[in-house]
Sugar ABC transporter permease
Amino acid sequence: MKKQKQGVSQWISLVFLTVLGIIWIVPLLYGVMSSFKSNIEMQSVGFRFLPINWILTNYTRLLQNTANTPVFRWFWNSIVISGGSTILVLVVTSLSAFAFSRLRFKGKEPLFIFLLSTMMFPAVMNIIPLYKIMTFLGWANTPWAMIFPAATGAFNIFLVRQFMDNIPIAYDEAARIDGASDWQIFRIVILPLIKPVLYVVALFTFTATWNDFLWPSIVFSDINKMPITPGLKLLQGMYVADIPTLMAGAIIAIIPTFILYLVAQKYFLQSMSLSVGVKG
């Protein structure tokens, strides 16, 4: 009887996940197919999954029009910004989490609670003050305007701290008996053990920075310095939208994050349990 219940629950889970997968993948496939259609076909035929005439004009026009849509430049800008944000977030997050998890100092818990409370405020509240700060520092239209604000995420610190709390404190004590300093404990003992969760933080940060649209649309006005996501809005005219070209640009834009997920998915699944996998 117990095995039958487990079998039914597994089938229900399978059906539920299959439906969710279909809901997620059908719009993606439709976007891919639409990128091979002409604009006339897109507007006149209506909903049709496969193109009547397969064309590559949308991709060639998008990649060759470097004056109005410098896609390769946008692509490189996104790589620099997303990569720089990811590196900075990993450094700040790992050190902050180590301080909150391992070090003892006055006011640690109230400070951590205050840090978490900042997550209750919507990010849009920070846009005007943050823009004023960026213009004051002269960072508008530079990658720094996106790299440095990315390091302020409280959720990443919380995630790494929870992961770090599962590491037995006996490791620290043994290293301290051997004469290791706090920095050596972090670098030699803790850092290798928290690599799985750091991979997840890197994945989330890179993807969020790459897909960010609102903030770069505000802080970038130079067409040659903006990343690819806000750059795609230039493909849309004021009165007419070339949807197939927009779809071609969107497909090009998601390639790096798609490859990143394929490479890092095992680390993502490994760290979701928030445990290090050590016994003792």
About this structure: The chain has one domain: 71-279.
